[in-house]
Amino acid sequence: MSWGLKNRISKIIKPKTGKTVMLAVDHGYFLGPTTGLKNAKETISSLVPYADTLMLSRGILRTCVDSKIETPIVLRVSGGTSILTELSNEGITCAMDDAIRLNAVGVALSIFVGAQYERQTLLNLAKLVDEGEQFGMPVLAVTAVGKDMARDARYLGLACRIAAELGANIVKTYYCKDFSQVVESCPVPIVVAGGTKIAEKEALELTYNAISEGAVGVDMGRNIFQSDYPVAMIKAVRSIVHEGFTVKEALDLFEKCKKEKQKKFD
Ligand code: R5P
Questions:
Q1: Contact (CB, 8 A) for 239 and 256
Q2: Which single residue of 137, 189, 190, 191 could bond 132 by disulfide (Cβ 3.0 to 4.6 Å)?
Q3: Ligand 1 site, residue 26, Cβ cutoff 6 A
Q4: Ligand 1 in contact with 220 (CB < 6 A)?
Q5: 3-state secondary structure string across the chain
Q6: pLDDT at 32 over 90
Q7: If you take atom 14 of ligand 1, which residue's CA is the nearest one?
């Protein structure tokens, strides 16, 4: 691994704890103005002080994020579909040289194992890895789950392993029953998404279980920015990921932080 690649990965997975809290705010690339991200600038500026990495599209980066930001950027570089069409029909939407110009420390692309355009998305990943190797840019593969797929260890294990085999440096997937089996069969670090909004206690349990079973962190969006108390929620998630808090300790922190003045995002 080149020095540049290793250095960029260390900006994503913090060397001090070996863990990461990535804030995912890329949802608009196929969902449009999602709840909690309608005013992306406001959401991002409120939450970014608590994120190790910000994951977003270049359009939102350029228009909604201060260029003096210190938080490293992981750029969403796949897309080309909307919620109204076949989601797996993605292509690469941002060239590697622009990712470098934007000072990204990683690029993220979805693969859709088992979906209509599986092959296309896997070849997209392989192409991105080739370019990433050339420029020292880590590639994060996002295992998107199609409507007809089960979110179980068998399916997610398959998707994560394929992503790693094709050269992804980090894989993002979902937490599931027997998640440790997914981790064990994937030779690169795994971060978990939060998925659709659930109660804060459940999202903290998901975080705790994922970390306990071997994830290096979260790449979480809706369960943070759609919470009624988004800043309290990201602080509670951080406490589990980086400080080894139990779910109860993280919930106590969440309740304490709820008392601080904060805004719910539209
Ligand atoms: C979805 O394709 C996006 O990549 C999101 O970044 C991902 O789903 C994580 O966000 P959430 O925690 O809201 O699931």
A1: no
A2: 137
A3: yes
A4: yes
A5: CCHHHHHHHHHHCECCCCEEEEEECCCHHHHCCCCCCCCHHHHHHHHHHHCCEEEECHHHHHHHCCCCCCCCEEEECEECCCCCCCCCCCEECCCHHHHHHCCCCEEEEEECCCCCCHHHHHHHHHHHHHHHHHHCCCEEEEECCCCCCCCCHHHHHHHHHHHHHCCCCEEEECCCCCHHHHHHCCCCCEEECCCCCCCHHHHHHHHHHHHHCCCCEEEECHHHHCCCCHHHHHHHHHHHHHHCCCHHHHHHHHHHHHCCCCCCCC
A6: yes
A7: 195
Question: Residue range 15-29: average pLDDT?
Answer: 98
pTM for this model (two decimals): 0.97
Give the Cα separation of 6 and 136 in Å (integer). 8
